[in-house]
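Box 3.1. Reading complex inputs
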Amino acid sequence: MLKSGNHTKSRIGSMGKKAHLWPVWGLALLFGSTQSGVAQENYKETRSRSMYTHIIPIYDANGTQIDPDDPNAPPYSPAHTCMKCHDYKEIAHGYHFNAADAIENGRTGEPWILVDPQTGTQLPISYRDRPGTFKPSDIGLSRFRFVYQFGRHMPGGGVGENPLMEPKADEGEAVDEQADSADVELVPVVDEDEAIWALSGKLEIDCMLCHGMDSSYSHEKWIKEIDKQNFAWASTVAMGLGTVSGEVKSLPSGFNPAEAKENGPQLPKVKYDKKKFKEDGSVFFDLRLTPENNSCYACHSTRIVGEDAPEKWMLEEDVHLKSGLTCVDCHRNGLDHHTVRGFEGEIHPSGERVDQLSCRGCHMDQAHSDSHHMGHDEFGGNLGAPKPLHKGLPTVHLEKLSCTACHSGPLPGEAAMSLQTAMAHNFGLASQTRTSEELPRIKAPVFMRDDNDVITPYRMMWPSFWGWLDGEEVTPIQPADAYKVLRRALRIRKDFQSEVANITLTKDQRIEALGEEAGAKPVSELTEDEQATLTAYEEVKVVEVFREKLVEALKGIGDTAEDGSTAQPVFISSGKLYRLDEAKEKVEVVTEHPAAAPVSWPFAHDVRPARKALGIGNCYECHAADSPMFHGTVTAVGPAPDKEPITVSMHTLFFPDTLRMRVWEMFFKLRDAFKIAAFAATGFLSLILLMYLMSGLNRLLNGSRRDQDLD
Amino acid sequence: MLATTHATGLQGFGWKMIASLILLLLFIGWHYFQAVRGREPFMKTRPGWGFFVKIFYFVAVAAIAACAVTSFGAVLFSGKLLGWALVFHMMGAGTFVFLLPILALMWGRSSRFGQAYRPGRQERFNGLAKLAFWIMLFAGVITIYSPLISMLPIFGTEGLEILLDIHRYSGLAVVLAAILHGYVVWLGRQGQA
């Protein structure tokens, strides 16, 4: 601690005055140093609420200060620059960096989604133990390939700089069995791409990605450097400290930097912007302790897409942000960077209670029956949060529904909407080719029950991939391997989704669809009705043609099976599993295969104002035969053309007892009439009771008087 | 957990409910014992019950029983009145709401203390039955009003919680009174006296 360090300094400072006590002071200093060495951290802090102005020297990955005049200066290392004053190792275990660590995962979150447009792949993957996701190794993604694929929306650290660990395999003992044991020895997983790591460098935690002020950091440049496999250079470019020429991705296989020729391939080179450096070589870091919303948005943004999607300017932001709060007001963390996720029942790795930072924690008062709180209530109101009135809302709603069910995300409509997310759709990279249909296809809001049986809004995606079916298990095929077959069988060049849906109808087919006369006309001369008929016909044909081609594709993939393998080639899309029939002449469609089941994750933002909560108008916003929450539809979407997509009514996902739902809806149809009749009947009863009461009192009083008179 | 979640089993309301039921059953047992030994005064004649009186009374008892079983079961086992139990509770409650005024009209006059239905006629109910009847009616009114008012956008969560507690306790009083009334009526119909 600095405190103990200061004590040591003060002792040293006073030594001159009492030099004759040198031997004593010497011992004391030695003893004091030893003592403070135990307690002291090597990290600095100002203890001031005022933000420290970071004008600091920058260092490379070896801890050597960067000289901007050096033409061969290496890229700056955020880790070695920041760790001079901050505990980088402590920070590096935070939630944003610890996906591959063997830790409690907490509530499920958005998975990484491996997208390959050529093969129509959209595969949820995660190092965390999330239901419905695959491990990167299942799809042949080495640690390097994973970082190359997703580093664009990672803040660095974690698998970006540390090897994966696995239990050391002893002879005769399976690794999985060992993993259950608490005292397993972990050893690094050998990365098949170790040689490339030596060129790309580590993807260190880039503190500025989150802590940089608005315009001091370019997420787009970070994305582009990751795409070039210039991991170690990404921070330098993104922060605008210099420009980088060259890319690791283009280096020839087996490239050795030590043997690089002047005119041959070279490792990327940095040209530092000297204007950014002070005379002493230090650099101004425009940062703040608590990240700005803009930093969070880089990875945590969503957008509703599709024909009915509202324009961006028509949307309102989260009510909390509009009220002046920031993301980190609730999603806080200490130095350990274990960012509070804010869901109910969250167990924070620090052991601190964080339920006060959930919706209910701030907005409601909580009763505690545990001995720790002596049975006292805890009051909300953090950050000035108003306490909701919930007038007339039966309290059971507060137990059976999450706050987010009524307050978060887009209001549910007739059907779940199409949605894109920053991490899934590579937001942050300016592009002219973005469409609403680009993979992965995600739907929201979808109401489901969470692990605590509470109805919660989710986002949902149906995996799509080529794989091997063995028993009930489907093992995904690496997209690159699948593409070798699909290229020919499906004639795919760039985009599976659009190319399999793109067919040209023959004249005979047009006649079949429209009849002799209209079918012979050019498309431009068709009436609206005829065009609609033709479009419907074309949609059917697209599916037919796709399934015909799919036979060839699956046969082709089947030919690549290892000798002796009994696994069957399959394609999964939109909740359906496609496989060859026994004669291998047609495609068989399985609609309820566990491997085709959707993956889903709850969401909490954007929070709508109270007056825009679901049900604020009346009960019938939910409890009616046409309510979006119960009767809105969820349609499985994926890259494969499908004329009859799986479509379910929303209630089947969280309220499968249809009979009870119908009875309940019938009750609500009669609710208003019942209220009037019940008030009338009870009012009448009250009058009767009042009458008898008055009569009884009257009799009682008269009786007393009579008794008095008799006395 | 929210303050809205109530303790299950014999904690909170549960033990009060069980204790009051046990006390009532003990009283009924003691009373029955006294009746058998002829120490308690009973009605001299069986009350004359018409068809509709029987129907209304038994439907009302069935409605109260449905509400009691579903809600007491929820209190004891899950802490929450949900699902089909809530559906049946609502059905029972709906019936109870409209039958209670009918019961008041039907038996209010004959349940006046110290007064026969008509001058000169023998009383239909004894004091215990009358007491149970009036408790059932007064508690019933409170039991009905508390959820009815909850249906209006007047009270917030805390107010609704209080109304729910009122509903619980008044509902319990209705059930206890209904059991007592039923017992006394049954006893009278056995011709014990």
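In summary: The mean pLDDT of chain B is 82.
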